[in-house]
Fold this protein.
Amino acid sequence: MAHQDKARRKPVARTAVVTTIIEGLLNDIAVGTMRPGDRIDELAVAARFGVSRTPVRETINRLIGQGVVTRTSSRGACVVEHPREEIAEMFEAMHEIDVICLTLASKRLRLLSKMQIEAAAAACEAAARAGDVEAYIAANDEFHREIYLAAGNRNIAEIAVALRVRTASFRRLKLTDSRDLETSLSGHDAMMEMLEGDGGPGAIAIVRARMADGFRRVMNSVEI
């Protein structure tokens, strides 16, 4: 019996380790510590998290599946680089999904969901006031995730989160100083107004305009 319990715990422990490594590497990409084209050093990652190379390799395989990492000709792996056309397509898809989530959430918003979104928005504002870009990025991702959940459709939420993961390194390009953070916050104001209203054409137009502005700032920073 003890042997069986130990056998059952191993997959759970491995999954937890891999999840931790994934979150760490995705955060590195989101905040710009790792940029498109950067090689992933398996030994360095293993040492950083105090694990063997086996869970690191599993992590890399999962990130490849998410479209965040790719194999190199030397059998290594690096953060994915995308041509400008692909970046534009990803942002177009993300913006369309975001509008869908906002529209659904505005019609289904419950008190608890509203409180969680407002809490994430407050965290964004606090980070922006402090000029803390890394904290803002984390709070901003949480803000959007809460909106996706409030939409009440798990399939759409999964697609939305996947697109945010794939665009993380590029979204980071538009957030370099306090002024950028304030600009991003103004987009949150438009989203909150849409959530608290009826999600009509006028509100959607304002949100789309904010998204388009953010996209232009990303593309102006892309060197690919």
Observations:
- The chain has a mean pLDDT of 88.
- The domain at 84-221 is CATH 1.20.120.530 (Four Helix Bundle (Hemerythrin (Met), subunit A)).
- Strands lie at 69-71, 77-79.
- The longest strand covers residues 69-71.
